[in-house]
Amino acid sequence: MKSSDKKPAPYDTRQFSKLVVDGTKQSASRAMLRAVGFEDADFGKPQIGIASTWANLTPCNMHIGELAREAAAGADAAGGKSVLFNTITVSDGISMGSPGMRYSLVSREVIADSIETVMGAEGFDGLVAVGGCDKNMPACAMAIARLNRPAVFVYGGTIRPGAGRTDIVSVFEAVGAHAAKRIDDSQLLQVERTAIPGPGSCGGMYTANTMASAIEALGLSLPNSSAQEAVSRNKHEDCRAAGAAVVNLLRLGIRPSDILTRKAFENAITVVIALGGSTNAVLHLLAIAHEARVKLTLADFTRIGKRVPVLADVRPSGKYLMSELIAIGGIQPLMKRLLAHGLLHGDCLTVTGKTLAENLAGVADYPAGQSVVLPFESPVKKDSHLVILHGNLAPEGAVAKLTGKEGLSFTGKARVYEGEERATAAILAGKVKAGDVVVIRQEGPRGGPGMREMLSPTGAIMGLGLGDKVALITDGRFSGGSHGFVVGHISPEAALGGVIGLLRNGDVITIDARRRSIAVDLTDAELRRRRKAWKPRRAYTDRGVLAKYARTVSSASKGAITE
Fold first, then answer.
1. Dihedral (CA of 100, 137, 545, 398) sign
2. CA 333, chain centre distance (Å)
3. Residue 368 pairs with which residues in a beta bridge?
């Protein structure tokens, strides 16, 4: 069925705002709104909340205030009444490798809750959410799904490359290269000074660009919103169009529940795989699906992954940056190819009011001679790089990111570290050798708490030249910039008595991507004996947001949700 054939159910475009501003008894509400710029005519318009994740604490979000104002202008011009509000953001790149990283995944829940809180309290009828960093983007999508009011997500855009095509991962890997004496102090400082030239999210197919692409594939963003540079005119136009689009959705009566179907999530998984995207997409898509009341499990990633190839040769394991993918047309031509091969559901509704297939109908293919997106006949990998593993080390599952360049199996002896800092220090000190399986535990959602990303240790391993000689496993997670033979999200985590918490130095661990297995060479009897002697570690803290998070968070295998 085409979108034009759909007859939307009657929808009151002011069903929420009228409860706040209509009638004599709401005079006080109107009086306060007049002080913030409302005029008489505005009280009869649908109110559009513009959720801005602006903050001057990270390049990813430093420009979003301006973009949010563009979205507001678009909503106003289309007949709505926009109201800007802010939510928080935190910087993964800045807090990486420090205790502050514990707050990163926690911020996803705080942001989603805060958007819901403002929208619910103020009675906004529609929402434009503008996000630009790893956690605020899935948080915006979670809030959109939870609220189920007409909404559009806008990506803040990717950063331009630094000098010599460098980016944030270049800096982390330069630290490892410096430890190996492959570069000197002045060379490290040069990378530090030039890798981040201005506004925008980290420049490879890391978590930000992965999630922007996934959200577009879900149908929550306007076409090509995920593939625009942060400082481009296209991004400003995208924001203005998003403001108008949400007013159109109100008139059409199209809500997120009409868009966020099981088929839409399958489309998102397909696009993430084809792009070689971040392991964090697994965690975040599970969480968004939970809010949308769509049943999605790790098994869906395996099922879809068997038939979808990795086509984009992009960083961290490939050659190209997001800006170079943008230059050849972004992800829309890729999606059109996937649709033509029967790998996308073209009948899914999107925020344009049209189906995915209708949106893609006029999209041109990539220019001849480009090598960023490879043909189906010669993919980067014939099936998914996101490999869901099970075994005695991860009965509930684990997530590996393996393009095949690292190899597809690894057997080695465990070198166990309690937490990221100890592991990173040991790696930089040369204590990790070829053939080791680095085990970093007590970093899970509850045990961390907050499930920190292991970019510092993986960056150090790559910088030392050990990327194909060492494996790293953790109950934490990885930055989208991590690459090498890495396995994260091991569940159950150490803090809950998972087998990763029972490992000892020298235990032999085998990771086999072909068999989708991860196991330690110990008998069930030995594991039972170790479990009897196991005692939980003292909680990181017993107060504040981290303590509340640790008490309520679920397993990573369920998306680390907090309901």
1. negative
2. 22
3. none
Tokens 């590996």 sit on residue: 400
Measured between alpha carbons, how far is 88 from 131 in angstroms, rounded to an integer? Answer: 10
Query: Which residue has 């929550």 as its token pair?
Result: 220
**Closest of 2, 68, 81 to residue 41, by C-alpha:** 81
Q: Report how far residue 397's alpha carbon sits from residue 442's, in angstroms, rounded to the nearest whole number.
A: 17
**What's residue 6's pLDDT?**
53
Quick check: helix, strand or coil at residue 487?
strand
Half-sphere exposure of 536 (CA within 13 A, CB side): 11
List Cβ neighbours of 389 (8 Å cut-off, separation of 6 or more).
397, 398, 399, 400, 487, 511, 513, 516, 517, 518
The domains of the chain, with CATH numbers, are 3-160+198-360 (no CATH), 161-197 (no CATH), 386-558 (3.50.30.80)
262-274 vs 280-291: helix axis angle to the nearest 10? Answer: 170
Contacts of 102 (CB under 8 A, 6+ apart): 448, 449, 450, 452, 540, 546
pLDDT on residue 1: 44
Residues 497, 19: Cα–Cα separation, whole Å: 50
**Cα gap 513→510, rounded to integer Å:** 10
pLDDT of residue 99: 95
Percent of the chain topping pLDDT 90: 93
Element (H, E) at 510: strand 508-512
Q: Is the confidence at residue 401, as pLDDT, over 80?
A: yes
Q: Which residues contact 502 (CB under 8 A, 6 or more apart)?
A: 527, 530, 531, 534
Residues with catalytic roles: 479
DSSP secondary structure string for all residues of 90-120: --HHHHTTSGGGHHHHHHHHHHHHHHHHHHH
Q: Nearest-CA neighbor of 55 among 89, 27, 83, 78?
A: 89
**Residues for the chain: how many in total?**
563
pLDDT classification of 407: cutoffs 50, 70, 90: confident
Instruction: Read off the amino acid at residue 540.
Output: Y
DSSP label of 495 = G
Give the pLDDT of residue 4. Answer: 46
**Separation between Cα atoms, residue 265 and residue 288, nearest integer Å:** 9
* Residue 438 to residue 417: CA distance in whole angstroms: 8
Read off the tokens for 413: 């002896």
Alpha helices in 168-327 (DSSP H): 168-179, 185-194, 207-218, 233-252, 256-259, 262-274, 280-291, 298-305, 322-327
pLDDT digits (tens, 9 = 90+) for 269-327: 999 999 999 999 999 999 999 999 999 999 999 999 999 999 999 999 899 999 999 99
344 CB-near residues (< 8 Å, 6+ apart): 217, 267, 270, 271, 335, 338, 356
Phi-psi group of 342: left, alpha or beta (phi > 0 → left; psi -120 to 50 → alpha; rest → beta)? left
Which positions ≥6 away from 515 have C-beta within 8 Å?
none
